[in-house]
């Protein structure tokens, strides 16, 4: 892997063809696996995929289930690299029950991490982070803090942070990974980390550090046969030269990267480079060429729900703006805005609103141009201040001009003022002298008072700084507490999951799963609290979406069951959010487990809304078989429904149950003090 000498490839290929070895499935499998790893590090994704496929076949012949699952996971990685996301997730999901049945925590952590990466590739960053948190919990159970396994994980987590406006957190992870890689003298990962850090320096505008990091990475990979890494570095050098306005070099490096990616038929990477070449042409004001590159990009971006696709749409529309074809530009930029709203990409939203403002201005719709410009400013404080200052300067100039015009008009029309001014001038001198003496006396008095006030203000300011420092420390401590509580709950959840694998009794398994989901429900609350600036309120819309994703993964089945979330942007404090979250968990779990026993398809609806100031309504209903006619919520033996009843009382709510024909649970409650 370090040298990628052709001699090693020859050894594996010749050994695989040996007649003696062909009759030994375990050795054939190991050889194909080794060859697959080498081809992957050389950047030959197709050859790696074929090698892993053959390794899987031979491992199955040898009844090596764990190793066969490992090859399925490797195939998933190769398919992900090729943009075949559906095939990748099938391979990943195939491995999970195998590793769970074998209590193989190490392999299970790799699967969760790979699934997280797959969602990252599709710009579903919340789900990606959810899987990375699951990975983190498992790794904490089995790894030393300085284990090299952390390095790759931190790099992957940083990739998500870089797309969610958390560059500082990402940099902290990379620096931690650097310490681990350097303590292990691992040049490969040190060079990979340098490449990753160049992306952060680019975002921060620190081009000197960006270039140094790229050179350090290039120095390692240039002397080895890893073509893929070298091509990625060529692409990044192209980006660097584009940002420092060295256009010829930017085009040279981008073209070099494109040739490799085209030869290997790597669609996502081809689209990425074509988009960059469009940017280069755009900077040269060759808008026809830029639009052509952008439209070529669309053929290689298979997933329309990603920031990469939104970026291509925006760039295409912006090029048409510059060409004066505003009607054509409008469709592209509006679609980019829709995608970026779903992804909650702040930087992308800012750009889309700016583009729309220019488009509507070109179309002569000044009201919409103004509205979009206002939204652009909301996402760009520094730009907003600059524009405000400019507007204030213009208004001040206009005001001074009008003031002078009025003064001239008055003087010209009222000559009597000139005469009166002469008569009163002497009187004004006497008054001015008296006024000056009075002013000096008052000034002395004010000076003494000001000195005293200044000392008081300095003392007050010092106290305020100390209070602010203490508040910041308390806030940091509180965030850390929430983080640790979340991690501890996550570990409990993982332990319950591991314990479940060794159980044979289905009822006990179900009970353990239910306990796991309740623990996860509470962990999500603490996770949200340490992520938000507001340490006391939970955004229930985001929370319910994450809870739904987790439960559908937990109770996954072959049935086509869709969960629909309709939740308003409501923030509840922790005392209210925990019981509401647990109620939602119980009702959704019940629907997923029991509502569709005799059905293949179905829908579950979760609606959370504010009916009046301080009053809320939670509705969970499904299209399943409905409730037992004899169900009495007060006498039920179901622990889940007992919890729902108890928690509803805790939030002073009223519970309504109906079958229409599916099960329907409606809870109305108000933001009053919590019941004891």
UniProtKB/TrEMBL annotation:
TPR repeats lie at residues 109-142, 310-343. It catalyses: ATP + protein L-histidine = ADP + protein N-phospho-L-histidine. It comes from the Bacteria. It is an enzyme of class 2 (transferase). Pfam families: HATPase_c, HisKA_2, TPR_12. Keywords: ATP-binding, Coiled coil, Kinase, Membrane, Nucleotide-binding, Phosphoprotein, TPR repeat, Transferase, Transmembrane, Transmembrane helix. The keyword Nucleotidyltransferase does not apply. The chain crosses the membrane at residues 429-448. Residues 385-430 form a coiled coil. Its EC number is 2.7.13.3. The keyword Kinase applies. InterPro entries: HATPase_C_sf, HATPase_dom, His_kinase_dom, Sig_transdc_His_kin_sub2_dim/P, TPR-like_helical_dom_sf, TPR_rpt. Residues 480-673 form the Histidine kinase domain. This is histidine kinase. It comes from Belliella aquatica. The lineage of its organism: Bacteria, Pseudomonadati, Bacteroidota, Cytophagia, Cytophagales.
């Amino acid at each position: 892997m370090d040298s990628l000498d052709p001699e090693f490839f020859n050894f594996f290929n010749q050994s695989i063809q040996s007649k003696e070895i062909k009759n030994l499935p375990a050795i054939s499998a190991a050889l194909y696996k080794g060859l697959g790893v080498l081809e992957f590090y050389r950047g030959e994704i197709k050859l790696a995929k074929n090698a892993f496929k053959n390794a899987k076949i031979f491992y199955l012949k040898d009844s090596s289930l764990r190793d066969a699952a490992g090859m399925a996971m490797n195939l998933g990685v190769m398919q992900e690299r090729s943009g075949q996301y559906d095939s990748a997730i099938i391979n990943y999901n195939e491995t999970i029950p195998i590793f769970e049945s074998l209590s193989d925590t190490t392999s299970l952590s790799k699967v969760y991490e790979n699934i997280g990466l797959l969602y990252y590739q599709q710009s579903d960053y919340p789900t990606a982070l959810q899987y990375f948190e699951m990975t983190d919990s498992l790794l904490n159970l089995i790894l030393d803090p300085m284990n090299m396994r952390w390095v790759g994980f931190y790099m992957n987590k940083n990739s998500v942070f870089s797309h969610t406006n958390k560059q500082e957190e990402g940099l902290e992870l990379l620096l931690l990974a650097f310490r681990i890689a350097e303590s292990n003298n691992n040049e490969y990962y040190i060079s990979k980390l340098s490449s990753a850090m160049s992306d952060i320096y680019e975002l921060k505008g620190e081009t000197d550090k960006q270039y140094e990091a790229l050179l350090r990475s290039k120095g390692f990979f240039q002397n080895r046969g890893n073509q893929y890494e070298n091509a990625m570095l060529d692409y990044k050098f192209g980006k660097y030269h584009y940002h420092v306005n060295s256009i010829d070099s930017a085009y040279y490096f981008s073209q070099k990267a494109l040739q490799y990616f085209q030869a290997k038929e790597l669609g996502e990477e081809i689209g990425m480079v074509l988009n960059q070449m469009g940017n280069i042409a755009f900077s040269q004001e060759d808008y026809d060429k830029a639009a052509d590159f952008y439209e070529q990009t669309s053929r290689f971006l298979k997933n329309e729900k990603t920031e990469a696709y939104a970026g291509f749409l925006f760039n295409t529309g912006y090029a048409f703006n510059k060409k004066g074809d505003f009607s054509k530009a409008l469709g592209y930029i509006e679609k980019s805005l829709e995608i970026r709203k779903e992804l909650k990409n702040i930087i992308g939203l800012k750009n889309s609103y700016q583009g729309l403002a220019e488009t509507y201005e070109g179309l002569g719709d000044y009201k919409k141009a103004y509205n979009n410009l206002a939204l652009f400013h909301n996402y760009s404080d520094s730009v907003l201040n600059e524009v405000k200052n400019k507007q204030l300067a213009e208004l001040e100039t206009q005001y001074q001009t009008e003031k002078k015009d009025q003064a001239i008009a008055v003087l010209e029309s009222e000559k009597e003022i000139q005469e009166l001014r002469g008569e009163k001038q002497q009187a004004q001198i006497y008054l001015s002298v008296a006024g000056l003496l009075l002013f000096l006396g008052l000034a002395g008095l004010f000076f003494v008072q000001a000195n005293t006030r200044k000392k008081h203000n300095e003392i007050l300011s010092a106290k305020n700084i100390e209070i602010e420092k203490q508040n910041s420390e308390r806030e940091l401590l509180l965030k850390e507490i929430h983080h640790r509580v979340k991690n501890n709950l996550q570990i409990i959840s993982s332990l319950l999951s591991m314990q479940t694998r060794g159980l044979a009794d289905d009822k006990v398994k179900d009970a353990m799963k239910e306990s796991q989901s309740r623990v996860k429900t509470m962990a999500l609350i603490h996770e949200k609290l340490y992520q938000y600036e507001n340490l006391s309120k939970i955004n229930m819309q985001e929370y319910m979406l994450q809870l739904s994703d987790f439960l559908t993964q937990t109770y996954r089945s072959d049935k086509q069951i869709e969960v629909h979330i309709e939740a308003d942007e409501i923030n509840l404090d922790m005392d209210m959010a925990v019981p509401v979250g647990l109620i939602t968990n119980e009702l959704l779990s019940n629907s997923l487990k029991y509502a569709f026993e005799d059905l293949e398809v179905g829908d579950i609806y979760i609606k959370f809304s504010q009916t009046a100031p301080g009053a809320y309504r939670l509705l969970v209903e499904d299209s399943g078989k409905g409730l037992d006619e004899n169900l009495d919520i007060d006498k039920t033996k179901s622990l889940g429904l007992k919890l729902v009843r108890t928690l509803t009382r805790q939030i002073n709510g009223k519970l309504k149950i109906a079958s229409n024909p599916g099960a329907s649970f409606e809870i109305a409650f108000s933001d009053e003090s919590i019941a004891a």
